[in-house]
Structure formats: structure tokens, C-alpha cells
Design brief:
The chain has helices spanning about 20-30, 50-60, 70-80, 95-115, 130-140, 150-155, 160-170, 255-265, 290-310, 310-330, 335-350, 380-385, 395-415, and strands at about 10-15, 35-40, 60-65, 115-120, 145, 185-190, 195, 225-235, 235-245, 245-250, 270-280, 285-290, 355-360, 365-370. By secondary structure, it is α/β, with parallel strands linked by helices. The strands form 3 sheets. The protein has a 5-stranded parallel β-sheet with strand order 3-2-1-4-5, with helices on both faces. It has a 5-stranded antiparallel β-sheet with strand order 10-9-8-13-14, with helices on one face. Strands 6-7-12-11 form a 4-stranded antiparallel β-sheet, with no helix packed on it. It is elongated and about 85 Å long.
Amino acid sequence: MADSMTGKGKVCLAYSGGLDTSCILKWLINQGYEVICFLADCGQEEDFKAAEQKAMKIGAKKVYIEDIKKEFVEEFCWPAIQCNAVYETQYLLGTSLARPPIARAQIRVAQKEGCFAVSHGCTGKGNDQVRFELAFKALQPDIKVIAPWRDPPFLEKFAGGRNSLLEYASQQGIPVTSTKSKPWSMDENLAHCSYEAGILEDPNTTPPTDMWKLTVDPKQAPDEEEHFTVEFTKGIPSKLQYMENGSSKTVTEAVDILTAANAIGRRNGVGRIDIVENRRVGIKSRGCYETPGLTCLHFAHLDLEGLCLDREVRALRDQFVTFNYGKVLYNGDYFSPQREFLHTSIIASQKDVNGSVRCGAYKGNFRILGRSSDSKLYDMEESSMDDIGDFDPSAAGGFIAVEAIRLKKYGNMKKEAGEGLV
């Protein structure tokens, strides 16, 4: 509800400290709003104290810095690992996974401060506006959303893009870091770092070497393969064992596991991809992503399922849950009945995915060195080509004969139609 003592009312702004949201903060204040700034710490390398001081200097009434790393990993990254979530076969959804916990934390702050509206700095062409606003409406259906980059007066005022923003910042006394803007945009969290726009909009432009922030250039990575072991409990990473400075290290807490996996992937150049994807709004977009730790954990989990997961359960999960969970995350439908349904299916599919995977990282590559589990689905004697065991080879003849009935009819049909298969 608007407060007559403070003009138009109180707004909670998702603030980053960058040029865009700093100008939006001042613009909202000049429009008569009382602004509460919100920053989410989801593992990005950022000077939160400097951002807080900047927001207060511009005129924010309060600044909240909310640490959401634990909930981000446990509630969002781990289920994605459990179902091997991926979008369009390559993107491990690092940005998509972070948006729901950020939106939820922002709504918590808005409710605490009695804000009638929330605001963000997302562009009108991107996915994030959809992800944030669908989450806002599910979490608090009556919340108002102020989206400046879709507001005609704001668009008209800042039609010149960065130059218009810089001019406004100068006029309004907004502190601007005197560094040259990089010719691309970035978004970082504990799961990944993404790069898009600017020079990357030409899909045939090779990303410059100095663009990649997290991972070492694979060609410059160590010449010796690094080995580590990941343990899973019901499909969730529960322990990571690795060597550091000659000493054996073990981590078991969720944030520590992802942080350690990130460090391994980063120093070995693992997890870079460069793709063209289909945005929710219908536009194709080129994106480059660094996802070091999540890449290692994703493929380790995928491998363990081969040992532990029933064939038909895995097939149903792959065809239905994996594809649709990735789609739900990418499209911003996390707080939805279909996501709840899919999540229940994920849990049911993972009850027997328990075991360890030995992994190797080397010059941009990740590989499996071995796996072990108490699962009873794999039987070495039964699988052996040298030991018959309880398996009766003669039974295979009847199996083949039954399976061939349909194919024989198909072959005869093609022959009669003059479309021989030979």
C-alpha cells in the first residue's frame, strides 16, 4: 500500500551496484518512491559492502544483503543434479536455477518492509524478466512490479543505452567506476558465469580469451590429470574427496561440495560451452557459459545412475522428468504445480542412487575413472562373458523369436510393396 507520507509508496529494488540499477534506483527516487535495495549473495564474486555504500549514497532508505547460497545449492542445484536437468542438450541452467531463490528472498524483504511493489533491471527482450515476475506473482499474487526497461518514459529517457545512463549518472551525482565497459554482459553465481550480448551477438565471433572469468584456459591448465571422488546419497552429492597441496581433503556440506568442485573444475578448465539457444520470449540468443563444478557433478551423477537405476525407471525419467524439469527451470515456472509434480518424481527415481564415482579433470575435459555402489542391480558374474552363472543362454533364442515376429511382418510388408530393405 502506498504511504502518503513518502509519496508514491515503498518499492523493493533488486540492486547490483552496477550502472543500470544505480540509475534505476535514482530514477525511482525521483519518481517519488521510497526505495529499499535488495542484493542476493548467491556465491558471486562481488564487493557487497561497496554496493551497499553506493546505494545509500544515491538515496536508498535501506539495503538488505541476503546470503542465499545454502538454499540455492540444496533446494535448487541438487534437484537439478538428481534429474540431470539440462536445456537444449548442453546448458546446465546456472542462471535459471538462481532466479527462483533470488525472487523468493526479494519478496521476503519486500514483505518485511511493507513494500507495495518490487522492481528489477531486466531488459524487455530477455528471459529473466519472465523468470522473476512469474515467481513474484506466485509468491505474492497481489505484488506490483515496476519494470523500467519496459516503461515507455524510461525507455525514451535512456534511448541511447549506456551513453544515456552515463549522462544521467553524471547529472544525478551517481558514482560511476571509471573502467571501460566490457563488450558483453555477465551474470555470476556459485553455479556458473554467463556471457552474452555485445560482440557475442554475432554467433560467428569467437569469444576472446580474456572473457572467461572463472576457468583457466584449457591449454594453460596443469599437465597432470587431477583425480577426485564424489559420493552420492539418493542422487544428491553428499561427500567430495580430493587432494590439495599434497593433503587429502573431504567436504560434506552442500555449499562446500559445490565450492570445492568449482575449484577443481576452474583450475582444470572444465565446463565452458558456447551455444545458441531459444529464449522463452521467442528470440534466439547466443550465450557462453562457465559451469565448472556443476559440470563435474552432473556427469558423475549421470554415470552412477548406470550402475544403480532400473532401466525402465531411467527411461521414463529421461523422457519425461529430465526434459520437462529443464524446461520448467528455463521458462521461469519453478513456483508452479507442474514443478511440484516433477520434483516428487525426481525423489522417487533417486532412492537407490547411492555410491561413489572416481573422476578425473584434465585440460578442459572431465572423465569417469570408476564407480562403486552397494546396488544389487549390477552383478559382475551375471555380466561376465566368461561365467554363465544363473543365466541360461538358450533362453535368448525364444526371446529373439518373439521380438522378431513384428519385424518379420514389417519385412514382408516392405517386400510386397516393392520396397525391399536389402
